[in-house]
Amino acid sequence: MRRHLAAAIATTLALATAPTFAAQDKPTPSAKELLDASKPSEWRTPDPDNLLYMQLPTGRVVIELAPDFTPLHAANIRTLVREHYFDGTSVNRVQDNFVAQWDDPASDDDHPDPAKLKSLGKAKKTLPPEYTRAIDAKLPWTELPDGDVYAPEVGFSEGFAAARDPATSRMWLTHCYGAVGVARDISPDSGNGSSLYAIIGQSPRTLDRNLAIAGRVLEGMPLLSALPRGPAPMGFYTDAKQRLPILSVRLASDLPPAQRANIQVLRTDSTTFTALIEAKRNRRDSFYTLPAGKLELCNIDVPVRDGGKPVMP
Amino acid sequence: MRRHLAAAIATTLALATAPTFAAQDKPTPSAKELLDASKPSEWRTPDPDNLLYMQLPTGRVVIELAPDFTPLHAANIRTLVREHYFDGTSVNRVQDNFVAQWDDPASDDDHPDPAKLKSLGKAKKTLPPEYTRAIDAKLPWTELPDGDVYAPEVGFSEGFAAARDPATSRMWLTHCYGAVGVARDISPDSGNGSSLYAIIGQSPRTLDRNLAIAGRVLEGMPLLSALPRGPAPMGFYTDAKQRLPILSVRLASDLPPAQRANIQVLRTDSTTFTALIEAKRNRRDSFYTLPAGKLELCNIDVPVRDGGKPVMP
């Protein structure tokens, strides 16, 4: 029965106004039922120019870049990847309930020796921040109905959790679980994509609009989220042996099609995605005594499948 | 410089209305500065009758029970602990961005064999749900100013993240990171504290008021949050060898004082706690270009120290 419990916990919500659920009542369709009924046209295959394969000793992390939000960072990261800059770097910092960060280990010294730093090659050393972009009617927008503590409007655009402020006509990607951000130094233009972090805990939305978000992890989050936390302040490892080596990072478009993953992401402007949100907001089943009737931005997973099989969120 | 960056990322926020931070400006005090200046009277030593020490092969997890919110569950868990019920149980389920759950492994079968289940001894098999309790002016309440997607009011009471609904005069603990919940089967009275879970990812607030929260983890979260995720649906392990054994669970009050941890928790009705929240909401320093000016319930850590040393959040 615990598995039954777990299933209910993992997927359930119900109408705040719902009467007690009776045996003869029809439960809200599950995420699996909704996805099984989805149309092929509701799934998109990410552009291979936006897909990064990060090979770790423990497996592969797949990241989708977000060039419509951070185009200069996407371009610089592609340049670094094509130079094999990340090959031989490592995950150097894992802070519990916050981030896993990977970069050139030499850059993590308090006063890095420039002679020891990996060359950025043709990649730019500084970039305009790209923390926000103009709201554009050409970008799809699926708005959530329940509001947000941090932003006037929240929703999804092109598969990414995002926020908007009509007063300034700006929009930006949000630091939800799995978001991949661009680390920087004090100067806002000091982020260049050579140091990246993934959110592995409660979404630190206070970072929104203060750091550029390059994309999000589509597959392999547990390879980052389950890493040993670093013993030093902010989760830095104290011994080079604790660092997880990054064997390689490649762009899907640089690999022969036969070596590419067959990854698809549910369109966040699809009928099925809207139905998933509604089912989670207003789920009715035999488990829940009091439904939330609401749903917060970072509580929503955008479904991904690889080779037709669902990627476990 | 990356450490500088990390420090800023880990602690920063600034006034939404703040002018550009200038070199001569005084930055908002850091969490460390505020805690270093705190008074001894602002820290409380949890009642040893409410402190659980869960000994894992990898270290110790310390959990504080919340008897003012879930008294019957606290009493039943104390009974189970004094019977050494949990000794020899295990963490049987770790679902990425959701929960780590521990209990009698035999109970995780789809149709558990009653003959194989551990005896609950004198502990009750069923309990009233205790999902919410009446608002009581005698309970301290530190309310947050920035609202919440899921509840009319949110804040802290006796060290626990909580929510209130004046319309119903009820309050309840919330499923923030580190909350320890009581797993149950379909029937609301089927939870008894013999199966517990800790939140290890984005707070699944949709569980609020549908499951009893027994308390929260004060120390040792990484021992649960960094565990390998289970390969089966909902993060169940598929092989008994994957399960992490629980060597023992003891109440601090059942140990000689010399064997007890010297744990203190910052009072959430203290001036310093309010100052920490304000500093995080409205932080100003050289790193942040745009402050949030707001702060969400589950983005706030309640400081804990063990032997005078801060417990890393």
Structure write-up:
Helices cover 14% and strands 24% of the residues of chain A. In chain A, strand 9 (160-165) and strand 10 form a beta hairpin. With 313 residues, chain A is α+β, with helices and mostly antiparallel strands. In chain A, strands 14-4-5-12-11-13-3-2-15 form a nine-stranded antiparallel sheet. A five-stranded antiparallel sheet of chain A has the order 6-10-9-8-7, with no helix packed on it. Residues 1-19 of chain A have low confidence and may be disordered. Chain A has a domain at 47-263: Cyclophilin, CATH 2.40.100.10. Chain A has five helices and 18 strands. The interface between A and B is large, with 79 and 79 residues.
CATH architecture grouping of the domain at 47-263 in chain A: Beta Barrel
Oligomer: homodimer
Name the CATH superfamily assignment of the domain at 47-263 in chain A: Cyclophilin-like
Q: What is the string of SSEs of chain A from the N terminus onward?
A: HHEEEHEEEEEEEEEEHEEEHEE
Poorly predicted regions of chain A are 1-19
Biggest sheet record of chain A: 9 strands, antiparallel
Determine Rg of chain A (CA atoms, Å): 20 Å
Q: Tell me which protein chains meet in the greatest interface and how many residues each side has.
A: A-B, 79 and 79 residues
Strand content of chain A: 15-25%
Compute the number of helices of chain A. 5
The CATH topology of the domain at 47-263 in chain A: Cyclophilin
| Structure class of chain A | alpha+beta
The outline of chain A comes out as globular
Distance between the termini of chain A: 22 Å
Instruction: Give the helix proportion of chain A (percent range).
Output: 10-25%
Give the overall average pLDDT of chain A: 91
Signal peptide (chains A, B): 1-22
Keywords (chains A, B): Isomerase, Rotamase, Signal
InterPro entries (chains A, B): Cyclophilin-like_dom_sf, Cyclophilin-type_PPIase_dom, E_coli_cyclophilin_A-like
EC number (chains A, B): 5.2.1.8
